[in-house]
Design goal:
This protein is mainly α. It is about 75% helix and about 0% strand. The protein is globular, with a radius of gyration of 19 Å.
Length: about 300
């Protein structure tokens, strides 16, 4: 156990593993939009989008539970006292976050979505400092948050310098980011007494099933099923299962700041992969680079002080 802990605390291993997580999360943006095409889910069919998302996360939950059980060499299940925590997390992290995320991403580009969604880093800090008083909101964190939000504003500026902001697109992604921030703080609190892998697995499974049932009740349907669509759905399940499980393991053996500082890679991968896979070349311009640069600088500034001591 000591050798495993030592390996997972190695800066090089942490960097590679954290960047892999961010690559997986970044690939989710174009994957979702490609998934809509393969399963022929229209951008205005909210019920089918929720059903599609629910199927993905229920699958992710099963993957996490299986992986966690293998790692523990016994079936991973929540204790009775952990069930309320799992339910709270599933409502925030899976249901609320991803209902708004899937609908929002259907009404904006993958490039813009990956940058707007990066605001969850700043929301997490504000929620932790203002609502839960887990840490202090100092000048450095505030400057980092303002620079990050400035990046989001820049990517929403239209060619005529007007605010091209779609509530059902960018607005829903901001709501999704806030739900993620709340769930992140709860995971930090609950993780002291519970296995974070167990929490992730069962909240994904419970949340995914709730979303799938809700989508079906609203009339959602997935009529077109192909081999390539199933393969993509399995990959999307792995994105959540693999990234969250690995991220949780890294957080178990390392300070949060040492892992979180690599989060700036997610919007970078999201923009690059969206531009390449979705051919959103017109979105991949100087304005996008400037916005992405400011988002990344903001994240680095927020984490710099603590990360300087732990990483360099």
């Amino acid at each position: 156990m000591k050798n495993e802990e030592k390996i997972l605390q190695n800066t090089g291993i942490v960097a590679l593993a954290a960047i892999l997580c961010c690559l997986l999360w970044g690939s989710a943006f174009p994957s979702i939009k490609v998934g809509y095409q393969l399963f022929e889910v229209p951008s205005n069919d909210t019920a089918s989008q929720i059903l599609f998302a629910g199927t993905r996360f229920a699958l992710a939950g099963i993957m996490v539970i299986i992986a966690g059980s293998i790692l523990q060499k016994k079936f991973l299940k929540p204790a009775k006292k952990a069930v309320p925590k799992v339910l709270k997390l599933c409502l925030l992290q899976t249901v609320m976050q991803y209902v708004f995320f899937y609908i929002g991403l259907a009404h904006t580009t993958g490039v813009k979505g990956s940058i707007v969604n990066a605001v969850n880093v700043f929301f997490s800090i504000l929620v932790s400092c203002v609502f839960f008083k887990l840490e202090k909101l100092d000048k450095q964190k505030l400057i980092g948050c303002l620079i990050g939000f400035a990046g989001v504003v820049i990517v929403n500026l239209g060619g005529t310098m007007d605010m091209s902001f779609k509530f059902f697109g960018d607005g829903f992604l901001l709501i999704s980011a806030f739900a993620y921030a709340l769930s992140t703080v709860l995971i930090k609190i609950y993780g002291k007494d519970e296995n974070p892998v167990m929490l992730s697995g069962y909240q994904f499974l419970a949340g995914g099933l709730l979303m799938a049932i809700f989508g079906l009740c609203l009339g959602g349907r997935i009529n077109t099923v192909t081999v390539s669509g199933i393969a993509l759905l399995l990959y999307m399940g792995f994105i959540s299962a693999g990234a969250y499980t690995l991220w949780g393991i890294l957080l178990k053996y390392n300070p949060v700041s040492k892992v979180a500082v690599f989060g700036f890679c997610t919007p970078i991968f999201g923009v690059i992969l969206s531009a390449l896979i979705l051919r959103e070349g017109t979105s991949f311009d100087f304005k996008t680079f400037a916005a992405l640069f400011m988002v990344c600088v903001g994240i680095i500034i927020v984490n710099y002080k603590k990360s300087e001591e732990k990483i360099l």
